Amino acid sequence: MRLIESILADAASIATLRRDIHAHPELCFEEVRTADLIANALNDWGIPVHRGMGTTGVVGIVKNGSSHRAIGIRADIDALPMTEHNQFAHASRHPGKMHACGHDGHTAMLLAAAKHFSRHRNFDGTVYLVFQPAEEGGGGAREMIKDGLFEQFPMEAIFGAHNWPGLQVGQFALSPGPIYASSNEFKITVRGKGAHGAMPHLGTDPVPAACQMVQAFQTIISRNKRPIDTGVISVTMIHTGEATNVIPESCVMEGTVRTFTTDVLDMIERRMQEVAEHTAMAFGCTADFEFSRNYPPTINHEAETDFARQVLAGVVGADNVVPFEPTMGAEDFSFFLQNVPGCYLMIGNGEGAHRDGGHGLGPCMLHNPSYDFNDDLIPLGATAWVRIAEAWLR
């Protein structure tokens, strides 16, 4: 690996910042302390800061030379609403909140790059350091765009990264096209008529109708969707009833739908509503159908992905830049890529051997209470950001 010496020299101090952020997790749009830490660090390094975009977002502005060209690099800063099982010194001090996805590490990598930029600006143009709130369900990227991110800070391209457990430290993974799915939610309320459980003929039971729907939804995937297209329908919650001898009046089903294209999503939403309403009718019930589209699919642009691949190969070698197998998870970097060309890439977080004594017994996987970011990635990720910015603005 060809790591930048100044970034290596600062790695320990940036890791300390990362662990501070990890110990003080903040949820969507509540990242006040985290934003203060970021802004104070940037100010200390002489980097101008714009605050409050997307509620708690921070944008650092690094200029050099006379060119009007610009590039954006993004890190997400929010935590998850879950309780950490780790007991090491930097474990969460706020029960029910945890950096279980590595956003503390993403922030640290971009801060390390920022500190290098404050002293070494080997480019002609502007690097915008985008510290984005509320990735975990809040759509912070969308909110920053609404607040004028690309109007106030026009950029030719934007890049982002996510740590990836299971991928070796020292490796990157990226691919053009769809890499993360759209994220959508549904809620279906099946309404019947309550009755005594021993006299079901006197009521209209919504539970069999709901059970039939769960099975029928999978035929949308197997019989309405083209086999070469990708889609997932998962019913993840069913709530009904209060007593074992009472047929309930209603049954509520909720879940998620994931696709890589809007056309498939349109078809699934339409067919789910048809199946829900007509199945309910066949059982003598009615159905209220609600469908929410949260995050669009994350689709990497081909030219920017190829550019990033070449730059990363110069850092870790071509053999350590591998294709990324798309995942049905979702990522709100998708909103940025709908507005500006760019690439979202993965950086290997290893298998979990980096965790200090006192870690939980679970695996070091994303959204797991025993997860922790690997601080060895900080100089590598920061070096990658510096080299990408320098190459783009050369």
TrEMBL record:
Q: Which residue positions does the secretion signal occupy?
A: none
The answer to keyword Metal-binding applying to this record is yes
Give the InterPro entries listed for this entry.
Amidohydrolase (IPR017439), Bact_exopeptidase_dim_dom (IPR036264), Peptidase_M20 (IPR002933), Peptidase_M20_dimer (IPR011650)
Transmembrane segments annotated in the record for this chain? none
Q: Which UniProt keywords apply?
A: Hydrolase, Manganese, Metal-binding
Peptidase M20 dimerisation domain segment(s): 185-279
- Entry's Gene3D superfamilies? 3.30.70.360, Zn peptidases (3.40.630.10)
Cofactor note (record): The Mn(2+) ion enhances activity.
List, alphabetically, the SUPFAM superfamilies matched.
Bacterial exopeptidase dimerisation domain, Zn-dependent exopeptidases
Name the Pfam families on file. M20_dimer (PF07687), Peptidase_M20 (PF01546)
Q: Name one GO biological process term.
A: diaminopimelate biosynthetic process
Residue numbers binding Mn(2+): C101, H103, E136, H162, H367
Which named protein is this? M20 aminoacylase family protein
- Origin species, per record, is Aquincola agrisoli
